[in-house]
Amino acid sequence: MQYQQINDWLETRWVKPAYSGWLLTGLSLFFFASATNTMSGWLYVISGVIFALLAIATILPRRSLRQIRVIRQPIQPVSAGEPLTIELELHNPATQPKTLIEVQDMLPHVLNKPVQQAFELIPARGMQRWVYQQPTQRRGVYRWHTVNLRTAAPLGLFWSRRSRTAKAIAIVYPIVLPLRQCPLIDEMGRDVNAQVQSSYRALGATEGVTRTLRPYRWGDPIRLVHWRTSARYGELRVRELEMFTGGQEVVIALDSAIAWERDDFEQAVIVAASLYFYAVQRQLQVSLWTARTGLLRGGQAVLEALAETYAGEEETGDRLPPLSLVWLSQNPDSLSDLPQGSRWLLWSSRNSNELRSEKPLSNVSLSSSHPGFVVQPEKDLQLQLQAPLPRH
């Protein structure tokens, strides 16, 4: 460890001998010692030439790196699982070309090890562009700012390394599940606005309530089947009804101020993103709430907040509003205080024996005014969100 620290100090502050540099230094000392013992002039000449060569070899690598500038292009956000496209430009404003330069992009260790690329030539008053793809596994906001330039040119006897500042911010959004239906969102507001819908149905015809007809999907109520159209097409067709929210706002609330199991929290973030964009698709007034940000609207703002959120974060945003919520939590005690018309999804601690059961937890309120379900981590998350809500 100490040997590596010495090498790093030499390479960044001065120069570090390569293997050939150590070998040539040893030969020069050997010839100088032999010349001292034998008083032979030609041995003094050989040792002197080698010493001069070594002196030049310590100066040139540092000079070669001196004027190179590094410019990083903005990194476009991606979703988890997609690669980041990272682009760097190496500019050489000098009148002489730069040769044999090794570039290291010092990525954060949670993203990957440093990525390096060697360039044979950077033209005089020109530039070289380096574009590479970095795979991603998890959502997050990744920041780094260091690019190392390293060379032993032109003789290859000593290595020199210098750092350049090139700030990078890479945003990896959570995965958004493509939901075809989501009863958790579809049924929001029905209880609160039942009177509005009843009045509308009393005044309008059946065709005025039906928005469109679509093929039957598993879980659709039989009462919505339009039998005349089904007979004409030879397959079941169901009515898709207009939903009236009466201006009600739906809030996707992620209980991020508490401690979570890591994998459960990652699932909850994916659920929050998926529910938000499904509600947007259904043209509902929807917001996202986290402990750090408070209420947020807008696709990009929501995705960035979900990319950066973490379990146990400080509650610095606005307090939870008294609106209908879709509450995502790992704390069953929080379900009893939800506003009227809310829904919930609960992740139980993986250390709990009750998680292995298909039944809801015993201490979860099963009040009809707060429908919801316990997420089963071993089952497909998308199918659970599209399944009908359990009735208690």
Short description:
The protein is α/β, with parallel strands linked by helices.
Task: Characterize the structure shown.
- 30% of the residues lie in helices and 28% in strands.
- Strands 1, 3, 5, 6, 8 and 9 form a six-stranded mixed β-sheet that branches. Strands 14-13-12-15-16-17 form a six-stranded mixed β-sheet, with helices on one face.
- About 9% of the residues have low confidence.
- It is of the alpha/beta class and 392 residues long.
- A hairpin with a 6-residue loop joins strand 8 and strand 9.
- The longest helix is centred in the N-terminal third of the chain and has 25 residues.
- It starts with a helix and ends in a 6-residue tail after the last helix.
Structure keywords:
392 residues; alpha/beta; six-stranded mixed beta sheet; 30% helix
The SS-based structural class is alpha/beta
Residue ranges: pLDDT <50 for 5 or more in a row?
191-209, 352-368
Major beta sheet summary: 6 strands, mixed
Distance between the termini: 63 Å
Radius of gyration over all CA atoms, rounded: 33 Å
Topology:
Blueprint: H1 2-13, E1 16-17, H2 19-38, H3 41-65, E2 69-72, E3 78-79, E4 84-92, E5 98-105, E6 115-122, E7 126-134, E8 140-151, E9 158-173, H4 183-186, H5 194-203, H6 206-209, E10 210-215, H7 227-233, E11 237-241, E12 249-254, H8 262-281, E13 285-290, E14 294-296, H9 299-308, E15 324-329, E16 343-346, E17 372-374, H10 381-386
Parallel strand pairs: 3-9, 12-13, 12-15, 15-16, 16-17
Antiparallel strand pairs: 1-9, 2-4, 4-7, 5-6, 5-8, 8-9, 10-11, 13-14
Helix pairs in contact: 2-3, 8-9
